[in-house]
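Hello,

Following up on my earlier ticket. Below are the two sequence lines again, exactly as submitted.
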Amino acid sequence: MKLSLNTATVKKQWTLAQAIDGCARHGIRGISPWRDKLAEMGLKKAVAAIKANDLTVTGLCRGGFFTAKDWLDDNRRAIEEAHELEADCLVLVVGGLPEGSKDLIKARERIKESISIILPEARAAGVPLAIEPLHPMQAAERACINTLEQALDVCDALGEGIGVAVDVYHVWWDPKLEEQIRRAGRKRILGYHICDWLVPTRDLLNDRGMMGDGIIDLKRLRSWVESAGYAGFHEVEIFSELDWWQRDADEVLKVCKDRFATVT
Amino acid sequence: MKLSLNTATVKKQWTLAQAIDGCARHGIRGISPWRDKLAEMGLKKAVAAIKANDLTVTGLCRGGFFTAKDWLDDNRRAIEEAHELEADCLVLVVGGLPEGSKDLIKARERIKESISIILPEARAAGVPLAIEPLHPMQAAERACINTLEQALDVCDALGEGIGVAVDVYHVWWDPKLEEQIRRAGRKRILGYHICDWLVPTRDLLNDRGMMGDGIIDLKRLRSWVESAGYAGFHEVEIFSELDWWQRDADEVLKVCKDRFATVT
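Thanks for your patience. The regenerated structure is below:
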């Protein structure tokens, strides 16, 4: 079963130690931790617990945020952590507009430059970098790489050791999605994240749906990434203030497994 | 002064008759009415009042919604109304996914077919059709044409008498925006709508900002549409449940004029 749990899905309920135990208990073989939870648990302990349970780390969330003051040190630490965890990739949420700026073109140029600075270090550490294009509604605040095409243009400019994380929530609407997934191919698709788009959506960040509860054609998108050669894990990542973060985490994991088997 | 008032900006405060008077009083020379307000006032009365005040109708909002049962009749009526108003264009908000469907590809095909059915009638009536690509966050519910590139591909497939309405709110984030505005050129840009993107944005539909209150680089976008040859009106369209719909409408118009002169 190629299901992975992005720990943000149960971030209000569980520590990373609990999430690792939970995955093992529910037979979920992949995990993708967030770095705040990792810091809380301690890297060594986390590595040991993940190894003891034989989990695959499908990604580390997250590097990027190149708008932050300490972005270089922070990304270096993230690469080191991803290396220690033997993560499939370090996910980059690249950051939006710098404080007080409206210059999206310059912001995007700076992001490309910043990635080019950390990429050699990531390569040396054996950590693939995965640019995650975020939904255009998050362009100002979280990431101004907003389409797969744009992310792949950056990858092509930078060469080896870099690819994309395809999150259905961010890309489902894109008229060029199938074409760009094909373009990305096995080489560039480093992660595949699933959840659903709710109608209505009540919040721009924390109102994602469980697979099957929204309008994303998950089977079709899966067929596209698999046709492109992707054979890795399917990582559930649900930010849900009003629903899934309020539920018992064991119930959440059960529903994730069930929906993964039936609607994706 | 090439400023136009989209009546949605004061829809909670004013009838169409009041909006026409308001424009005249404030020296705003363009107006873009919504059809519910037009029906309320009556087409003949509206035409007479608009002519008496020598206002340009920069667009009629809206045709489209090809997912509705009565879409064909409704669009025919909209074309007739736009003709009577001598509107610069009929704005098409094309509709999202049909009820119960997740098939975005089919929805988009159906939209293209539907436009091709009404286009000859619009041409005969001398009414240019303006596809308005909506922000991807509105793809499921309101319009699954979501980028300028996608809209222009539809225009190119359908030929003469059709173009786009460029609304900064919907397109500001697009990495291909400058390129696609250039591609559109004078021929295809039938309308230019302005407002701003607020940080944070609290609602996916009704939390637009007044020009200058958000992060859109309005001067740059304006330079792009003007460089492409657009010389028409700049239409203010602000849906704002929590702010501008709560204010005195005369104050709203004053601020629109002031911001148009200073920040766009």
